[in-house]
Amino acid sequence: MAERQYPADADEPNFGIDAGLYRLKRVSTTDFDPGDRFDAWRETAYSIANLETPNADEAELFGTKYAVRGAIGNFASHAGSAHRTVITPAARLSGALDAIIISLMAEGSVGLESPSGEQPITTVGRLVAYDATKAMRYHWSVGKEIYIVLPRAKALEAFGGELPGLVLPLDTIPLGVLVRDQMAALDLHAEHLDRKEMAIALDALHTLALLLLQRIGRGLGDREQPDPNALFLAAKRYIHANYNVFDLSPETIAHAVGCSRATLYRAFTYNNATVMETVRGIRLAMSRRLIEARTGRSISVIAYDCGFKDAASFGKLFRSRFGVSPSAWREQFG
Predict the structure, then answer these.
(1) Cα 101 off chain centre by
(2) How high is the mean pLDDT of the chain?
(3) How far apart (Å, rounded) are the C-alpha atoms in residues 126 and 177?
(4) Cα dihedral 46/49/50/56 (nearest 10)
(5) Cα 200 to the chain's mean position, in Å?
(6) pLDDT in tens, 214-253
(7) Helix intervals (H) in the chain
(8) pLDDT tens across 13-33, in order?
(9) What SS3 state is found at 248?
(10) DSSP character for 36?
């Protein structure tokens, strides 16, 4: 991996930390010769799960990874092609994977498959935790994951026990939203931080992540309901990412954000909204943007692309919301 370089005429910052910590490293598939690329990438970029050999009909492997080690844990981001990784029972029992992962899907999605057949899916924008010691297979789409690696013992001590299930949603309380945003911000600015700045930012993020696990664990132990505002925001993010899905239902949304349908309804009622009216509102807003963008697509195609099953019902809803038909709205921007 390539490390961040300091100016030749400047001394590297020295503030009493291990020389191997807080150095941002980068590695890409383009760093390796095509003939050795898969083996080299698997050896270099995958320390927690093993990269599975792609099928002959799958797209060419590509990827870029940034990583930095801190005193409390590690931070990394990985963007690339669709692929599969697996945590085997042998690797799990070896103790080499003794970590809790806090994961943010910045782009794309990942499905987790357990030996028992459980297959939860983490979609774009969600912040979740999973236990790297649990044997499972990951099915990654084209996309980008930003993640924190925490020592398992420290993380479970904060949480107050074992993590339930394969995936634990973390963005159902305000602190989870804050941690998610801080992870995205660190990923965006990491290349521009010196080691001291990186140390302060990374240690603060890891401390917040441990506090988040503590708060989530305490809430589960006390059987508290998720914060309705945070749950409402998490649901809206999911709707924004999946508004074009025809059968987007309250049940689907509730499952995605990690709550019951009744809890989801309460969160929307608390925010003076309903689930399906929010879905329709987001679909209509996106369709209006596409009409204004003059993409050349017909009104029927735009309706279909935004999750409406037919142009007639779309036209009625659009006129009800904006006062004119979709065609008349297009004429205003012709």
Answers:
(1) 12
(2) 85
(3) 9
(4) -90
(5) 23
(6) 989 887 655 456 678 888 988 998 899 889 998 899 998 9
(7) 37-45, 89-94, 152-159, 174-189, 195-221, 228-242, 250-257, 261-270, 275-292, 299-305, 311-322, 326-332
(8) 344 456 689 999 999 999 999
(9) coil
(10) G
Q: What pLDDT does residue 101 have?
A: 93
* Numbered ranges of CATH 2.60.120.10 in the chain: 2-221
What is the third-level CATH fold of 2-221? Jelly Rolls (2.60.120)
131's tokens:
């236990």
Stated length of the chain:
334
Are the CB atoms for 174 and 148 separated by under 8 Å?
Answer: no
Mean pLDDT of the region 120-135: 86
> Residue 167 corresponds to which amino acid?
V
Whole-angstrom distance, CA of residue 36 vs CA of residue 43 = 11
Does position 96 have pLDDT exceeding 60, yes or no? no
Question: Hey, CA dihedral for 300, 303, 309, 315, is it positive or negative?
Answer: negative
- Decide if 290 contacts 296 (C-beta within 8 A): no
Query: For domain 225-334, which CATH number applies: 3.40.50.720, 1.10.10.60, 3.30.450.40, 3.40.430.10?
Result: 1.10.10.60
The structure tokens 């809430």 sit at 219
Phi and psi based region of residue 130 (left: phi greater than 0; alpha: psi -120 to 50; beta: remaining)? beta
Burial of 259 (0-12, 13-18, 19+ CB in 10 A): buried
Beta bridge partners of 76: 67, 147
Residue 130 · residue 168 · CB < 8 Å: yes
Of 94-108, 142-156, 219-233, 265-279, the poorest mean pLDDT is in 219-233
Among 15-19, 45-49, 64-68, 159-163, the least confident range = 15-19
Q: What is the pLDDT of residue 45?
A: 87
Residue 121 and residue 253 in contact, taking contact as beta carbons nearer than 8 Å: no
Give the type of residue at 155: A
Tokens of 121: 């899916």
Tokens describing residue 38? 């898969």
